[in-house]
Amino acid sequence: MDETSPSTSKPETQRPKSHLEAARREKLRRIADLGVDPWGGRFDGHRPIAEIRARENEIRVIPAGECEVGKPPELQGPRVRAAGRIMLLRRAGKIMFIDIRDWTGKIQVLVGKAQVGDKNWELAQCFDLGDIIGVDGELKRTKTGELTIFADDLHFLTKCIETPPEKWHGLSDPELRNRMRYLDLTYTEGVMERFLRRTRIVQSIRKTLDEEGFVEVEGPTLHVVAGGAAARPFITHHNALDIDLYLRIALELHLKRLLVGGMERVYELGRVYRNEGISPRHNPEFTMLEAYQAYGDYHTMMELTEKLIVRAIEATGQSLRLPWGEGVIDFTPPFQRKTYDELLAEHTGVNPSDPSSISQFAQSHGIEVRGKHPDVIKNEVFEEFVQPKLIGPIFVLDYPASICPLTKRKRGNPAIAERFELFVQGMELANAYTELNDPDLQEELFSRQLEGLPEEESMARMDRDFIRALRYGMPPAGGLGIGIDRLVMLLTNCQSIREVILFPLYRPETE
């Protein structure tokens, strides 16, 4: 039995799978019997479907005087060559209508027995939904006005053995879509465009940084010390050296070493790994941008952050007012700026400079306070009661210094760190510092951060080579980190990070 459009036949998901596969494998045999390789080969000269569709204005009407006597005016169009996957297939006697799609779009193909010849017509009887084919023909319009390739030659490029998702429902299960991204890209509307948009966002970020005089580098992904962030690392073992190594949790410390070495504007855009939970906003493997500029500070990084985001939006061809769920995010610069303490007072009513006021608020809302530093309590209150209300985009400035071990202190107020975080829709998108370059203070802060850990673990997590590098002199600098996956979420209206990562992590499937 031939497979046809789901609109004219019983949904294929209701048929026995073994029957469908057997039918497809029989067609595979018939294709080979025709002397055609069912797995195709090189296919030169085809053009993207979007480019072919753009040639619609080349179609012209042949005047009646140029047609054969007695025939009405005809259409004449350019010759084109296309390749794509069969998305829809309808048979009507000695004519077939086929919709094919590539990564730029979709177009209809008309296959007539008289036009393609007997062998090609027989080949066309072996077509199934999901097969990949090539066509040569003339670009014209049908009587109903639909832009169509009128085929005169067919090329079989790949047989699809599995039955693709049913057209009208596709892959509805989010986990199945993310696991089987190869199907999601083809059969779920908008997914291909989302990931191509992600590519344009990343390209724009690189272009902007390059134009600002930054150079891109590649740091190690295997670290001897898991540093640069407070996160649990993945641990592996190097057999030849007989040492444990860590998949990097941040890019920071190696990039700062390059500042010491004289690379004054440097960035890396790469993967980092954190052995922590999975949620709509967290994936254990994610993409991070970190950039460092000598002789800058956190205000320099604010200006850079705005520029990177605005230009990325422009690169996707969108307005600076973007949809988010049922609302809108307005990325028109300048972004709002408020201090950490201002926002804490505004949303909780506590006195930010009074630890007892903050502790009482925390206890009354179920936050454990015993044995915790006052600034840790303060930050837990901020994260739970302030962050979710930061619709933004908003730069939150001047954090408690005690929770910022890599950040320069504010002149005249060492209790405050020159740090900002950018929040959008309650989600942290960027984090930046005026970088600490005092080696003695850095060593002291690292030691304080590691207090309470067993001596062996504390020694393993102290990056002494980084301290040594600072002793040789790191210029004053601003540093910035942006979570690329979260940025793509916000610029593509996706509520889950898994929707913007091609292959998010899942527990392995069982048989």
UniProtKB/TrEMBL annotation:
<feature type="binding site">
    <location>
        <position position="428"/>
    </location>
    <ligand>
        <name>Mg(2+) 1</name>
    </ligand>
</feature>
<dbReference type="GO" id="GO:0004824">
    <property type="term" value="F:lysine-tRNA ligase activity"/>
</dbReference>
<keyword id="KW-0067">ATP-binding</keyword>
<dbReference type="Pfam" id="PF00152">
    <property type="entry name" value="tRNA-synt_2"/>
</dbReference>
<dbReference type="GO" id="GO:0000287">
    <property type="term" value="F:magnesium ion binding"/>
</dbReference>
<dbReference type="Pfam" id="PF01336">
    <property type="entry name" value="tRNA_anti-codon"/>
</dbReference>
<comment type="subunit">
    <text>Homodimer.</text>
</comment>
<feature type="binding site">
    <location>
        <position position="421"/>
    </location>
    <ligand>
        <name>Mg(2+) 1</name>
    </ligand>
</feature>
<dbReference type="InterPro" id="IPR004364">
    <property type="entry name" value="Aa-tRNA-synt_II"/>
</dbReference>
<feature type="binding site">
    <location>
        <position position="428"/>
    </location>
    <ligand>
        <name>Mg(2+) 2</name>
    </ligand>
</feature>
<dbReference type="InterPro" id="IPR018149">
    <property type="entry name" value="Lys-tRNA-synth_II_C"/>
</dbReference>
<dbReference type="InterPro" id="IPR002313">
    <property type="entry name" value="Lys-tRNA-ligase_II"/>
</dbReference>
<dbReference type="GO" id="GO:0006430">
    <property type="term" value="P:lysyl-tRNA aminoacylation"/>
</dbReference>
<feature type="compositionally biased region" description="Polar residues">
    <location>
        <begin position="1"/>
        <end position="11"/>
    </location>
</feature>
<feature type="domain" description="Aminoacyl-transfer RNA synthetases class-II family profile">
    <location>
        <begin position="198"/>
        <end position="508"/>
    </location>
</feature>
<keyword id="KW-0479">Metal-binding</keyword>
<keyword id="KW-0648">Protein biosynthesis</keyword>
<dbReference type="InterPro" id="IPR045864">
    <property type="entry name" value="aa-tRNA-synth_II/BPL/LPL"/>
</dbReference>
<keyword id="KW-0436">Ligase</keyword>
<keyword id="KW-0460">Magnesium</keyword>
<protein>
    <recommendedName>
        <fullName>Lysine--tRNA ligase</fullName>
        <ecNumber>6.1.1.6</ecNumber>
    </recommendedName>
</protein>
<keyword id="KW-0030">Aminoacyl-tRNA synthetase</keyword>
<dbReference type="GO" id="GO:0005829">
    <property type="term" value="C:cytosol"/>
</dbReference>
<dbReference type="InterPro" id="IPR004365">
    <property type="entry name" value="NA-bd_OB_tRNA"/>
</dbReference>
<feature type="region of interest" description="Disordered">
    <location>
        <begin position="1"/>
        <end position="22"/>
    </location>
</feature>
<dbReference type="InterPro" id="IPR044136">
    <property type="entry name" value="Lys-tRNA-ligase_II_N"/>
</dbReference>
<dbReference type="GO" id="GO:0005524">
    <property type="term" value="F:ATP binding"/>
</dbReference>
<comment type="similarity">
    <text>Belongs to the class-II aminoacyl-tRNA synthetase family.</text>
</comment>
<dbReference type="GO" id="GO:0000049">
    <property type="term" value="F:tRNA binding"/>
</dbReference>
<dbReference type="InterPro" id="IPR006195">
    <property type="entry name" value="aa-tRNA-synth_II"/>
</dbReference>
<feature type="compositionally biased region" description="Basic and acidic residues">
    <location>
        <begin position="12"/>
        <end position="22"/>
    </location>
</feature>
<dbReference type="InterPro" id="IPR012340">
    <property type="entry name" value="NA-bd_OB-fold"/>
</dbReference>
<keyword id="KW-0963">Cytoplasm</keyword>
<keyword id="KW-0547">Nucleotide-binding</keyword>
